[in-house]
Amino acid sequence: MVKSTLVVRASDALPLAASVDDEQTEQSLQEHKQQAKLVFRRINPNSEPQCSIESGPYTLHYIIVDNVVFMTIAEKSYPRKLAFSYLDELSKEFANSYGPKVETARKPYAFVGFDTFMSKTARLYQDTRTASAASSNLDRLNDDLQDVTRIMTKNMEELLWRGDSLDKMSHLSSSLRADSEKYRRAARNINFNAMLRQYAPMIAIAFFLLIFIYWRFL
Hints:
Blueprint lengths: L1 E8 L5 E4 L4 H6 L1 H13 L7 E6 L2 E8 L2 E8 L4 H19 L16 H11 L2 H10 L14 E4 H62 L1
Parallel strand pairs: 3-6
Antiparallel strand pairs: 1-2, 1-5, 3-4, 4-5
Helix pairs in contact: 2-6, 3-4
């Protein structure tokens, strides 16, 4: 069953629209919605355009279309093919209604009115039998378009752990670069001091010879 839907701008994770969930759904999905926000923040130009992320009893399915991420949180048993068909319908309607306005949106949930279409479409997909029948009648399930075997599946814990690890590695890399520069400066100072100790006596002798010659003959 489709439980909740979120629409955000991919480039900066600005929320553009979301389904209006009842209190019980909101409470049960609180943790997963927080996970969804983390996923949105980590999406970049190299991210998979379609992906399913398993998290406990739910799966977060998303697609990225024209700098917009459409994500639905569904029960783990809900067919992936229906989930992506649902998201595909949302993306097409959203592009028709708000496409040119996406890049100029400045405030969160600028397209809150899209909830009406999301709610209506989600109701068609709530029951898998009803959804399959409706999709068949309206030719919504295109096998070539919705080939879910080619869509990446990830585990939420691994994804978040990998993200944390990448953040830590980035911080460690910055620290190593700073330390390397510090040690490089220290090495230059050590080499300079060593050179001074090696050649200082000779320089001093030459200096005194010059003074003696200047004083003796001039």
